[in-house]
Design a protein that fits this description.
Blueprint (H helix, E strand, L loop, with lengths): L1 E7 L2 H7 L6 E4 L2 E5 L3 H21 L3 E2 L5 E3 L6 E2 L3 E5 L9 H4 L1 E2 L7 E5 L4 H15 L3 E6 L6 H4 L6 E8 L2 E7 L20
Parallel strand pairs: 5-8, 9-10
Antiparallel strand pairs: 1-3, 2-3, 4-7, 5-6, 7-9, 10-11, 11-12
């Protein structure tokens, strides 16, 4: 569920205002409260846990901040991804990290994951464009209920994991459905299958 707070603010005002409790994004200067469902949280937790285990197994220099923002190149926009993986070594070059736990450079993010809810249009359109423009190497959209439009997940609509990988500055998409083995450039040895 999403609820807009009716006032236009700058990104700097947004991060100064951001409360300790709650989940908010800034879209074109408008603060949006993100209230996930229980199933959304279960899917997010499952994906995060699997990727943390893989990171640990491979001893990769990744962190999984749960409340960090991604400042998008769109006008006065900042996202709070469901799963955000950052390269801990790149954080030294992030100008807003220490002050506001905010990532501004796509090179700091090897992978970002969004779990689809009723705001699927943002995940499939806005965020794909913004994450691609930022140069984020890999972006997953977990549409566990098959909510996305037919142009994004096909017809008939069904639960789909869309994996966008940056190739020559543009995202190439691979889609995985029931019992498909997930293929990831960030985690090439991942032995995980998409299931409902």
């Amino acid at each position: 569920m999403i609820q807009a707070i009716p006032k236009h603010v700058t990104f700097d005002e947004f991060i100064a205002w951001y409360p300790e409790n709650g989940r908010y994004e800034l879209i074109d200067g408008q603060i949006i409260e993100m209230q996930p469902t229980g199933k959304h949280e279960e899917v997010t937790e499952f994906i995060s846990r699997q990727l943390i285990l893989e990171t640990s197994r491979l001893q990769l220099p990744y962190r999984f901040p749960t409340r960090a923002l991604v400042k998008a190149p769109s006008w006065e926009t900042g996202y709070l991804p469901d799963v955000l993986i950052v390269d801990r070594n790149a954080l030294r070059s992030e100008p807003l990290w220490e002050k506001a736990a905010t990532i501004t450079q796509g090179t700091s993010i090897p992978l970002v994951v969004e779990v689809v809810t009723t705001n699927w249009e943002n995940d499939y359109a806005r965020k794909v464009e913004d994450y691609e423009t930022m140069g984020i190497q890999e972006y997953w959209i977990s549409d566990y209920l098959g909510l996305g439009g037919k142009r994004y997940i096909g017809n008939p609509k069904q639960p789909t994991l869309s994996v966008y990988q940056l190739v020559n500055g543009e995202y190439q998409i691979s889609q995985f459905r029931e019992n498909d083995r997930i293929k990831s450039r960030t985690f090439p040895q991942l032995n995980w299958y998409f299931c409902r």
